[in-house]
Amino acid sequence: MADPFEKIVRPKNKKRLPEFVQENQMNKLDDDKEIFGNDFSGIRDKFIVEMFYNTGMRLSELIELRHGDVDLSGSSVKVFGKRKKERIIPLNSYTINIYNDYIQLKKETGFGVDKYSYLFVTDKGNKMYANYVYRKIMYYLGLVTGIDKKSPHVLRHTFATHMLNNGADLNVIKELLGHSGLATTQIYTHNTFEKIKNIYKRAHPRA
Q1: Distance between CA atoms of 194 and 187, rounded to whole angstroms?
Q2: What is the pTM of this model?
Q3: pLDDT of res. 190
């Protein structure tokens, strides 16, 4: 006997859009002088947040960075992504200034700053680890946003979404994120379209 339900087309599961932090919320992290302290841990935490937001790198990539990966003359950082694939990401002047502050405090604290030393270390000078960074990002994002998920990967989504919203080419974002194919990067266009729809609804008299 034929199955009466075999020709019924099931509705497609709606893809969940990547969560991201709004630009004004990220600006608050930069502008509020009381969020980060001026001691070693405070400047380091601010540097971690800025590296995620200004480069879009993964958590695993950040904790493996060494001082030799930062090229101040070229205003860039070398990242080793999945399958050890190397990519170069530009660093803006704002991030470089925080880097310089961090290095100065790291020297004063007595932690290693030679090119083979890990860039990010704990308060005790040990190599940074994933849970440590994850907790930090959860705390700081919790001060400025009410989104459900607060993680380093959300800052990666935030980087990509803000770049796209401000006119960056999708192929450039793909290279910066280290995606192997454009299909993975295209999910951020959905966030942009959601923004367009919201503007349309507010602006059109019949929307």
Answers
A1: 12
A2: 0.85
A3: 74
Average pLDDT over residues 199-204: 72
Whether residue 188 lies in the annotated active site = yes
| 8 A C-beta contact, residue 56 and residue 159 | yes
What DSSP line would sit under 11-69, residue for residue? PPPPPPPPP---HHHHHHHHH-TTTS-SSHHHHHHHHHHHHHHHH---HHHHHT-BGGG
pLDDT in tens, 67-81: 999 999 999 999 998
**Active-site residue flag, 204:** no
Query: In CATH, what class is 23-203?
Result: mainly alpha
Q: Please tell me whether residue 89 adopts helix, strand or coil conformation.
A: strand
Q: What is the mean pLDDT of the chain?
A: 89
The single residue of 82, 107, 149, 197 carrying the catalytic annotation is 82
Angstrom distance (rounded) from CA 69 to CA 137: 23
**Active-site residue among 58, 106, 157, 174?**
58
At 4, list the tokens.
């009466």
Catalytic entry in 67, 78, 136, 153: 153
Instruction: Calculate the alpha carbon distances from 205 to 133, 192, 194, 195, 199 in Å.
Output: 46, 22, 18, 17, 12
Domain boundaries, the chain: 23-203
Q: Is there a catalytic annotation at residue 200?
A: no
* Catalytic residue flag (residue 53): no
Catalytic residue among 44, 46, 150, 156: 156
